[in-house]
Amino acid sequence: MGIVMMAWETNGDNFDGGSMWAGRSGRQYMMTRVEGDRAAMAAARLYALAERGVIRWAGTAQDLIGDHLSRERFRRFNAQGAQMLSMPSPADPLALMTLAWDLEGGHVIAGRDAA
Question: Measured between alpha carbons, how far is 30 from 6 in angstroms, rounded to an integer?
Answer without folding.
Answer: 7
